[in-house]
Amino acid sequence: MAISLLNPKAEVARAAQALAVNISAAKGIQDVMKSNLGPKGTVKMLVSGAGDIKITKDGNVLLHEMQIQHPTASLIARASTAQDDMTGDGTTSTVLVIGELLKQADILISEGLHPRVVTEGFDKARAKTLEVLESIKIPIEITKENLLEVCRTSLRTKLHQGLADVLTDICVDAVLAIKPKDKPADLHMVELMEMQHKTATDTALIKGLVLDHGSRHPDMPKRLKNCYILTCNVSMEYEKSEVNSGFFYKTAEEREKMVQAEREFIEQRVKKVVALKKKLCDGTDKTFVVINQKGIDPMSLDLLAKEGIMALRRAKRRNMERLALACGGVALNHLDDIQESQLGYAGVVYEHVLGENKYTFVEECKVPQSVTILMKGPNKHTLTQIKDAVRDGLRAINNAIEDKALIPGAGAFEVTAHKQLMAYKDSVKGKSRLGIGAYAEALLIIPKVLATNSGFDAQVCNEFESLLPERKVIPRVRKSRSPFPCVCSNIVLKLWFMNPL
Amino acid sequence: MLKIPQVGFNSMLKKGAQSFSGLEEAVLRNINACIELTELTRTSLGPFGMNKIIINQIEKLFVTKDASTIVKELSVEHPAARIIVLASQQQDREIGDATNFVIIFAGELLKQALSLFQLGLHPNDVITGFNDACEKALTSLGDLECYRLKNFKDVDEVAKCLKTSIGSKQYGYEDFLARLVARACVDVCPASHQRFNVDNIRVTKIPGGSILDSSIVNGMVLQRAVEGTITHVEDAVVAVYSCPVDISRTETKGTVLIRTGKELENFSNNEEAALEQIIREISLSGINVVVTGSQIGDMALHFCEKYCIMVVRVQSKFDLRRLSNAIGATPLARLGAPMAEEVGRCDSIKLTEIGDENVVLFSQNKSTVVSTIILRGATSNILDDTERAIDSAVNTYKQLSRDARMIPGAAASELELARMVNQYGTSILGLSQYAVKSFAKAFEVIPTTLAHNAGKNSSELLSKMHAVHSSGSVWDGLDVNDDGVSLCNAKDVGILDLLIAKHYAIRLATEAATTILSIDQIIMARKSGGPKPRDNPNWDED
């Protein structure tokens, strides 16, 4: 063979053999993911090389963690990842549909049909399916009830029901809180904070911010009410000059002066904060909190603690932006002429100690545009499970808000599409209609697997179909619109058939 | 080099990865592994539980029957068994007691599930049933309350509540230790008992003597000698410094500019004078003890001696903070005379020798914020194990301050729960009834194990207990002291368990068991070599 002349070590699989390898990979990965689909799907346990446990049934997480090496399988995994990047949901479905498409194609090809023709049929069928999707979608108002439904559907496929229902409320409230009017929401403004404590159903939405560190001075107040919040990025610790410098002195007094001069510089800054606090808070019941992105050294902390100011140092950068949104005010980069208008407000700020970890809650903000989902769970794997689910839930809500349309879930769309494709198939001439038929069959994998996982007969979808004309299949649960499974799978398919040909 | 792949799922994964799936391969395997683990800790339950010797990976020796220590040092690798271990560790973190219960109960639930699978039940049915039964058990737990701690300042009453927790780990010493811990807790417990802090009870272990020689100090004990020659101060006025007690330094590198010998001499004199000035000021403000969290210079020590100031070094930052707390001082970040409100006071500070160790005792005559138990014992293993028992007891007090309800121990409450859940089980329709009843049956593992460990006939005990409980005396449990199988009223004998501990334990065990049951596939990557990535939780420390 030509290639072995060029590179004697190369391995080659061609035509039928290549196809067999590819299809077996698709089937294999489909088999693995099948049992995870739907609310009654089972979970898988993944153990990483370092021995960390992960328990999940989220398709995307699984594909990432399984460390797939098979080239074709990883191609499918990438399609699924693309689906996750675009919508955050429907990843397991993508894998299932791809696998089934190839399975159906395999039947046709083994009968002697050229792969090219099958692809052509798939292309046509895809266009038609997208049309069906447009026609079936239900436009919605963005109301809380609608969003709750979308989010519930998405979460129940990822977690057990009790927990999913708790998280549904939390996610919807979170998105509604941060969404500015007439502008898309920035989901990064929902901070996800983990706390290994109590049980998963104790997860809560904090209308404010939770920081994963506390003040570093034992005498600082642990709980303040009615607080001004100063967010700043100003160093309050001694920093060395960039050039190489040194002090020269002759006597101890001289050195003493130098020591003082060194401190002076930092003290000036701290004093500005203290002066502002005195001006605003003295004689009132208001209190003062400083949240600094840079450091505050022990002596400065001391000065602040004496004034009853709570000070947090080395806050994360992303939290500075969130703080400004949650409490109002501006994140300052210098402390020259600071004014009241630049400060934020929070009803209560307090510290919570959990074992060796400290958390600071900034709560009861006036109009929080950044909120925190405080996830609790008895162990690490529960926490990561919740985190993955919450992320997907938020995305599902956001998609619904942006699309303003839903389609029925619970396999209803797939059954409808199947029916319409079969009708469409009759209107097409030529061999490509075989491909359309295969595509239609492949879509049915979703209701079939859903049925199997819930302990029903897989052929249940046939009955559905007979009921369809009278529109008796009222979708039980709704799903956010996700047209991507079809699109992605087809792109992948094309890539696929290019390879062996 | 990448090969053209073979057919089959395993070939898709990275080399060395394993995957197990389905009921046979994954679920049953998991259950068996977990049962192995629970068999291990079962023999350590209760007052007559056996000790285990564990040598961990750094060859440290442990002799203990504290389940959380056993499983922690075992470094369990099986992923499903790890879930149970994690549950018991969480129990340790939340409550600090009843860790063995979590392991044994979770293991028994899985054992019960195994026989349900053999009956042909689907894992989903079992899980729903277990969750239902768990809710039921948790609500019925409230009905079992038999005692409530009322006075958090009464040593006798507190000791009564702590006895069971110590008795299950250090049987024979429980009366003595419970009183000791109770006194320590009561001494440091603030007026509003919800704010009791576990950290304020310290344990200092000094080998030698016997456990009965242990005692309490109202204050702190530091296991080191003082710096200077002054070893005893009464009515001490203490200044605490977190910085070094020495000549001050600039942060930027300083250079002394000297041209002549005269200047050199001047400089030294100067320096001495400056330091003496500072120490004199400190002394003038009434201070007679200086505590530093850092070094003390030779010259500074000399001047301290000159002004009759006792000097103590504390190396741990946390100890320094605790000490300042105990004597009411504020740690100062800069050397100099402290203000009146920054000064700490202590009734007596002295250096003594206990065993062959030098210790500095900071003791207060009356009320104190920190209490230290000086624990004596023949070997370091005994000391470690007793410390764990004391930790459990202190945690029990902490939990009592949150929820003062107690339920009968000696397996009485488990048996009663078994009865209640079983009754509930008969009332449910559907397949989950089997699971609920199995859940009830699983509770019986506690009386069985207790009897077993005490060398008694467990079947006889179970039948006796069932009979007595159904006739209405629901507080009757196993009497381990009597020969033969006999019962005693747990409340009267004073065997009391924390309600909240049992609450968490049942919940965590059920959660762990259902998690394991819901897994239908395990995928394990090949073990990666090399050290773990460094995890530094204290990145913001000074």
Automatic annotation (TrEMBL), chain A:
One GO CC annotation: cytoplasm
GO molecular function: ATP binding; ATP hydrolysis activity; ATP-dependent protein folding chaperone; unfolded protein binding
Name this polypeptide is given: T-complex protein 1 subunit zeta
Gene3D superfamilies listed in its UniProt record: GroEL (3.50.7.10), GroEL-like equatorial domain (1.10.560.10), TCP-1-like chaperonin intermediate domain (3.30.260.10)
Organism whose genome encodes this protein: Zophobas morio
Localisation: Cytoplasm
Presence of the UniProt keyword Acetylation in the record: no
Matching SUPFAM superfamilies: GroEL apical domain-like (SSF52029), GroEL equatorial domain-like (SSF48592), GroEL-intermediate domain like (SSF54849)
